[in-house]
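HUMAN: I'm a chemist; might I ask for a sequence paired with its structure tokens?

ASSISTANT:
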Amino acid sequence: EKAKIIEVPGRLYPIKLHYMPHLVNKELRLESKSKSKSDRLNPEPYIQLLSMIDKKYPKDEKGDLLIFLSGLNEIHSVVDAAKEYAQQNQNWIILPLHSSLSMQDQDKVFDYTPEGMRKCIVSTNIAETSITIDGIRFVIDSGKMKEMTYDPNYKMQRLKEMWVSKASSTQRKGRAGRTGPGVCFRLYSEK
């Protein structure tokens, strides 16, 4: 008798892991004119990695990018800078992904990319476990997320930025290895 073979989708391909804390400046937030901290994340490390991907991986090689950020302000900051970069290079489609987008805008992340183009999806942790996007080859993980916590000083619930768990960082890395071998860049140290 022949044995039945069952194939389970979602197999994990090998993923190269790079810790890149040197890309992140000591001061992640941009300084405003009043010298107080701005709420805008410095997008430069993310743009440096976009540029590195362009230089290292030929355009005819398929592979989209998924960036994990902690919240809406951070997404807007990176999306704005990435769109500027994409206009110069004409080979990236930049798409935000978060829960407050319309379903129509969220669905754009599932569209196939035209030949010679790559998608760059800038997302909250909604893309960590809730959805699987085919074609993701590269992941950039900020290592941060926002969680609702009780603030005793203000006596109310507040969104607080914090480091993700080891399990979450493993889950994020795994997004790069769903449809083929992938690469994960973590913008923090292994420690």
Summary: The radius of gyration is 18 Å. The first strand starts at residue 15 and ends at 19. The chain has five helices and ten strands. Confidence is low (pLDDT under 50) at residues 26-38.
